[in-house]
Amino acid sequence: MLHKTIKIDPASINEDKVAREILGAFLKKNPDAILCTDLTYTDSIFSHSHNQQINYTFQSSKNVVFRRRKDQRAGLRYEIVDKCIGFGANGAIWHSMGNLKFVGDTLVFKTKERAIKQTERKRNNEEYTYSSGIRHLHIKPLSYSKFTKYNFMTMKFFHGLNLHQIIKDETTDNPLLTTDQRLQLTIDILEAVQKQIHDHGLLHLDIKAENIIVTDDKKVKIIDYFYSQKIGASNRMDFCGTLITMPQEQFHFDKIYPRTVKTDNYAVGKTLAELWHANPLVNKTKPVVGLSEQITFFRYAKKNTEYDYTNFFSNGLSSEHVEQLKNMLENLTRAIPDERWSIQQAVASLRSIQAERNIGIRHQLSSKTARI
Ligand SMILES: Nc1ncnc2c1ncn2[C@@H]1O[C@H](COP(=O)(O)OP(=O)(O)OP(=O)(O)O)[C@@H](O)[C@H]1O
Ligand SMILES: [Mg+2]
User: Cα separation of 116 and 247, whole Å?
Assistant: First the structure.
């Protein structure tokens, strides 16, 4: 009897007959397989070319995660995970370069990028439930198997950067966005909160720069629905969100105010302050922190936010427009929920800045033309 040890690249099986045969036979026997690159797998197949049973040990050069298909369609898919794209407080995000499927008896690889969020099984599945309702995420059914303690949530992969990546190295002398792009992005973020979350009856409850992706074609996608809950429902979790963007009603010390859309508006205000380089006068901190830090932040959240405007992005803006922007940030982040601006109020204010800038440009152009 032959015994072989083989290294298999699951993304190359279309060109590698032996790898295709071995991996195909293995997945037929173990449909809900999760293959890890640091493990070896042993099996045997009958080889017609050798006319005998072959024992083999193989190792996959990429991680492979099975997933179910939408609408209870038959058959499974196998996502080929090639790199980690993010680590958060509660799990890892992976990039899938494509997937495997059986066409008849033959295993076939197809290129199709996706993102996979890996989370501990012991965590509830509500993130999956809420994410499934968000159309732009294109969520596939959740994968879980007896082989691991993790769930895998597969979704569309967005080419772009999260807002934190966009602004972290940016200074007013070295801006990545023009003033008009920054104004438009501010409107797009606000409207995304409205259209992608609130209009679907949801609260996000963890809006922050890392959870906003700006795609290469400048579309805003809000991700990470771990803390989401329905508008008007009783609080899903006592403590949720990220301290630097949390209003007072998101802390469990608060028993006065319910969580409403205004809770998200506060967080989006804090996030936009970051985009405009206005720093709240509070030290930044990690998302998971001790009780004393929570109490400190709760005290801050009970007061209206004071911003340090030293590095405020005012390139090419009139002093009136700078004041209007600061006013918007302060009104979105008022301590008392009822006093906070709605998304519509903030968008209206920004649109008026845009309109006045356009009139200003037209005025300059026409006075130049007049001189000619
Ligand atoms: N669908 C996606 N396409 C591209 N990049 C993504 C996608 N989903 C997540 N990312 C990247 O991975 C990072 C972390 O994702 P996410 O916020 O969902 O996880 P997390 O912070 O670990 O969440 P949680 O705290 O709920 O565990 C994001 O900031 C983003 O840069
Ligand atoms: Mg996140």
Answer: 30
CATH number for the region 160-359 comes to: 1.10.510.10
5-53 pLDDT, tens digit per residue, is: 889 999 999 999 989 999 999 999 999 889 999 999 998 888 776 788 8
- What would the pLDDT profile of 295-310 be if each residue is shown by its tens digit? 889 999 999 999 999 9
Pocket of ligand 1 (CB under 6 A): 85-86, 88-91, 93, 115, 117, 155-158, 162, 210-211, 213, 223-224, 226
Q: Where are the domains of the chain?
A: 2-156, 160-359
Q: Which two tokens stand for residue 237?
A: 């979790």
pTM of the model: 0.91
CA pair distance 61, 26, nearest whole angstrom = 15
- The best mutation among 93, 156, 215 to test binding of ligand 1, ranked by most ligand atoms within 8 Å of the C-beta, falls on 93
Q: What is the DSSP secondary-structure string of 244-297?
A: GG--GGGSTT--S----HHHHHHHHHHHHHHHTTPEESS----SS--HHHHHHH
